[in-house]
Hints:
Layout: H1 13-44, H2 48-53, H3 66-73, H4 75-107, H5 114-126, H6 131-140, H7 148-151, H8 158-171, H9 174-182, H10 187-198, H11 200-216, H12 219-224, H13 233-243, H14 254-297
Helix pairs in contact: 1-14, 3-14, 4-8, 4-11, 4-13, 8-14, 11-14, 13-14
Membrane topology: Multi-pass membrane protein
Subcellular location: Cell membrane
Protein name: ABC transmembrane type-1 domain-containing protein
Amino acid sequence: MNLFKRKNIHDSFSDRLLMIFIYTVLIIFTAIILLPLLHVIAASFSDPQAVIAGKVSIFPVNPTFKGYEAVLKYQPIMLGFRNSLIYLVLGTTINISMTMLAAYALSRREFRARKALSILFMVTMIISGGIVPLYLLVNALHMDNTIWAMVIPNAISVWNLMIARTYIQNQIPNDLYEVASIDGCTPFSYFWRIVLPLSKPIIAVLSLYYGVSQWNSYFNAMLFINNPNLEPLQIKLRQLLVLNTVDPTMITNVEQLIAKQGITDLLKYSTIVIASLPVLIIYPLVQKHFVKGMMIGSVKG
Length: 301
């Protein structure tokens, strides 16, 4: 029986000290990240007067749904939310389509120009045309003040393209292409019927990356969108957080001023929570593919 007993392995004092230090640092960083998030969530559910008085910490004070009711009744926020959903779905679809098609082409050994094109793609990661040429190009193509200005300029990410290309090269044997060709499968049919189904892990990872980027995108909207009906949620949120001001001289009733300021603050916190929901919903759906796709796609074969 003694042969099957496991010997206790004791960590040295220096190992224990190191682990204590690591866990302490992790706890501090977790608190720095988590506490502001809890404060925002608590403030969004708190009474407006408690928010103004600074009584809210990480727990709601006099819980209420006034903030979310204000968001639902505030038309610009709902319009921005709708626009962001459109940009998210349309933009991510274009991103994935362009990335996978280019990655498939660059992964084919019989494609003689694949090395030269890969170099040209990677050069764009170092050298950029700049904002002014981009604006002139979008304007010349008459895409400004259209939904295409939000999805076409960022249609493909070179970094994601290289990850997808590496995944296809490492995880999909070239023998499959030869067998499919013998059976009369065309290159596009091979891509559609074989490559895409086998690339679900990396597609899930890229969808998360592209989706988060599309949802948080506001710089292109600032450059190319002047129509309030096309502005995404992030621009509406920026207007609330940065540009929104209340002129006290325009309101003679002090109670009315306080009430308006309270609803305004509550509206800001509620909008922040709503703006974060899509990312929090999407991530659990692709979590099982996330680590696998990233580890395989990032290793060069």
